[in-house]
Design goal:
By secondary structure, this protein is an alpha+beta fold. Helices cover 37% and strands 27% of the residues.
């Protein structure tokens, strides 16, 4: 991997093609959250006002389809703890949208483990939608003993939603391995 190089595209492909084993000290991963939303890049006018123009950045919607089934199968065929975790998730979740999301995340976490130095750290930012599943997947990839902590990111400004919901979403998690 070249220094000061920006790679654009699917991180799984970039990791496999350009990043050497045990070459990374620190990883901060802010993947899609499985929020079932579409995110856009919003443009601004020269004066800083929001412009009407926007471009779709990505869809954070996952479906159990042929691509998800292929990603799942590739992970299961690789064997090991991650394979066992994915098979357990399938027993628990069936061929659901959540399993599709986990099938997308699993090979990426395996590749991130490969490129992380033994002395390195990974921080995985997620929300309550999938944090518990991702914690189990992280344990399968990195080993239970390598789990260091969970950082709870509290959004104070979200409390205005309290009248709408009894327990509004006000936190995200950052798993630290």
């Amino acid at each position: 991997m070249s220094e000061n190089t920006l790679y654009y595209g699917d991180n799984l492909d970039v990791l496999r093609r350009y990043v050497a084993d045990a070459s990374v000290d620190l990883i901060y991963l802010d993947p899609p959250f499985n929020s079932n939303a579409t995110y856009n890049v919003l443009f601004e006018e020269k004066d800083g006002a929001r412009a009407a123009a926007q471009v779709k950045a990505f869809e954070d919607t996952w479906e159990w389809d042929q691509a998800a089934a292929a990603a799942y199968q590739e992970t299961v065929e690789a064997g090991g703890r991650v394979s066992e975790a994915m098979e357990a998730f399938r027993q628990l979740l069936g061929t659901s949208n959540m399993l599709a999301y986990l099938a997308m995340m699993a090979p990426r976490l395996v590749e991130l483990h490969r490129v992380l130095k033994p002395t390195g750290s990974i921080y995985l930012h997620c929300d309550p939608t999938a944090s518990h599943y991702l914690k189990v997947l992280l344990d399968a990839v990195f080993g239970i003993r390598n789990y260091r902590s969970e950082i709870v990111w509290y959004y104070y400004n979200k409390m205005h939603d309290r009248r709408k919901k009894l327990f509004p979403k006000a936190t995200d998690m950052i798993h630290f391995m």
